Amino acid sequence: MGRYALRRLLQAIPVFIGTTFLIWFLVWGLPGDPFAGRCGERQCPESYVKFMTDKFGLDDPLPVQYFNYLTNLLQGEFGQTFNGTEIGDLLAQAFPVSIKLALVAVAAEALIGITAGVLTGLRRGSFIDNLVLVSTLVLIAMPIFVIGLVARYSLGLASVSPEAPWVELIIPGLILGSGSLAYITRLTRVNLVENRRADYVRTAVAKGLAPSRVTGVHLLRNSMIPVVTWLGLDLGSLMGGAIVTEGIFNIRGIGGLLFDSINRRQSGVVVSIVAILVLVYLIVNLLVDLLYGVLDPRIRYE
Amino acid sequence: MSDIKVKTAPVLGVDGRSAGHLLEIENLHVEFRTRDGVAKVINGVSYHVDAGETLAVLGESGSGKSVTAQTIMGILDTPPGFVTNGSIRFRGKDLLTMGKDERRLVRGEGIAMVFQDALSALNPVFTVGFQIAELFRKRRGMSRADGYKRATELLDLVKIPAAKTRLKDYPHQFSGGMRQRVMIAMALALDPEVLIADEPTTALDVTVQAQIMDLLAEIRRDRNMGMILITHDLGVVADVADRIAVMYAGRIVEQADVHALYGKPCHPYTLALLDSLPRLDLKGQELNTIKGLPPNLLRIPSGCAFHPRCRMARDICSTQRPALLELGGVRSSACHFAEELYGRE
């Protein structure tokens, strides 16, 4: 397993370089003048444009610029925005907020989704089963901005404060996770229903174990394998922030920062955020793959 | 081994009178209610087993032999399976009418079962040690350490080499034969009085089959257990069984001592089964087969269910169902011509 993890980490290097390179070209290759509109009504003075162009090395060929950026990045230097703010500081403010939001969302998915999935899986065809099935369908079908806006205005919620305390993130987190929550419910249910008739469950019954142990240990442990891996991957993608949810609740997370930076042509910020997201996703993916092997001993790493 | 109970005391019923047999199934009826209709899977099966004896239940797929076993264990899938009539008495008490919890405690301790396909019957995500020790922990209240110690002893008992290290292995890491030994060890954990082995060797190589059957026979003898051996393999039966019950279309068509049955089968179906065995002296000749297919349980033939495939069938066979006729001793046969067959030389 150690060798496997090492190989996967090594494989991550070209993936990381490739993705950041692509995004670098896409962002810096966009047509338009990064200094347009920076000096109010007037055109920016020649001297300012020349100073900024020199400072950010904008006259260098793109590959050279990318190489310089990557070298700095590897030393932990994200560089500055055109306003002179350290990009690292911006990220340090926004990332914890998005991570907290993602954790709330995944916790809600796990708690509510798995519970609902187990309840419906054990009582297939019952009233509660049908009720949950219909509600999950509604949740999956409804766009998140509809759920978010309706929730915000019907509950009369204020914006989330800049420090984003946990309590204020509960409702936004629930909304962010709502789609996945519905999916987790269905995934849990279908796995439970499928495994309920499995031979090893029958064996557990034949051993004279209590029904709670048959279900809680033998049935659930097997049914949770795909659910847990799915939750892991979801955590990875939610850490990338949620533009819509963050927008609706005025949460100053990574999604909002990314959206603003694209609008304001703060290319350095965009590339840095994407670089980190790629890294997070690569690591989460690896962790989930390793977790899969822990959950299912039949899986071997080679 | 200190945990072997000597079961010599007569089996007593609730009221203290002798209740007859250790496990006694009487007039059992089970049907499967499917979308296509009601399949009558078991239509009045009666058999019994006592401590220290092996009853072999023989039949083709779909004859109801496995469903009978599942009904005894209480692991019949309901729906679609429903018991519509009959009783299953264990030590004189009817399992079908006793409370859920009481019946649960009979499983594993009173009656245990070895399943056909150990790979799917064992839980893939737990070590075999966990799965065996679980019985001691949950049913005997033992500590984890004691449970694993007992599990090691059991793996030793079923002759798995390096038992102590193999406890930490998962089912898929065992070979087919070793896996079946694990199943047997698990079934023996609570020292059951009756062991049901449902085609325990079907998924195994021929050489391994013999080892597993020897092991089962040895354990049965040592522990004085009653054993119900479900199989479709006539070869397996001859060596280990005391009595044989042959099933066809959810009924017992013939029941007899193993030697009597092999020596002089008294039902045309048994006769045809024995005829279809490969024989050394008939090497090179085409095998005898039973023509036709086992009946569709949704539409069991009228009269004797076997009559469309029977070489001896006459008019009466399609209209009247033959009763199970006692032929003396434990011998019985459900054929209109049973006495004729019994009386032949």
Word description of this protein:
The complex is a heterodimer of chains A (302) and B (345). Chain A has 302 residues and is mainly alpha-helical. Chain A is 75% helix and 0% strand. Chain A has twelve helices and no strands. Chain A has helices spanning 2-28, 46-55, 62-74, 87-122, 127-141, 144-155, 166-196, 199-206, 211-238, 243-248, 254-263, 267-295. The radius of gyration of chain A is 24 Å and the shape is flat. The termini of chain A are close together. Chain B is of the alpha/beta class and 345 residues long. Chain B has an eight-stranded mixed β-sheet, with helices on both faces. In chain B, strands 2-1-4-5 form a four-stranded antiparallel β-sheet, with helices on one face. In chain B, α4 (128-140) packs across α5 (144-157), α5 (144-157) packs across α7 and α7 (176-188) runs parallel beside α8 (206-223). The longest helix of chain B has 18 residues, at 206-223. Classes of the chains: A mainly alpha (302), B alpha/beta (345). Chains A and B meet through α8 and α9 of A and α2 and α4 of B.
Helix content of chain B: 25-40%
Shape of chain A: flat
End-to-end separation of chain A? 8 Å
pLDDT < 50 runs, ≥5 residues of chain B: 1-18
Largest interface: A-B, 22 and 29 residues
How large is the count of helical segments of chain A? 12
Low-confidence stretches of chain A: none
Task: Please describe the topology of this protein.
The complex is a heterodimer of chains A (302) and B (345).
Chain A lengths: L1 H27 L17 H10 L6 H13 L12 H36 L4 H15 L2 H12 L10 H31 L2 H8 L4 H28 L4 H6 L5 H10 L3 H29 L7
Helix pairs in contact in A: 1-12, 4-5, 4-7, 4-9, 5-7, 6-7, 7-9, 8-9, 9-12, 11-12
Chain B lengths: L22 E12 L2 E13 L4 E5 L6 H9 L7 E10 L2 E2 L5 H7 L4 E4 L3 H4 L6 H13 L3 H14 L5 H4 L9 H13 L5 E5 L7 H18 L2 E6 L2 H7 L2 E6 L2 E7 H6 L4 H8 L39 H5 L5 E2 L5 E2 L4 H6 L2
Parallel strand pairs in B: 3-8, 3-9, 6-7, 7-8
Antiparallel strand pairs in B: 1-2, 1-4, 4-5, 9-10, 10-12, 11-12
Helix pairs in contact in B: 4-5, 5-7, 7-8
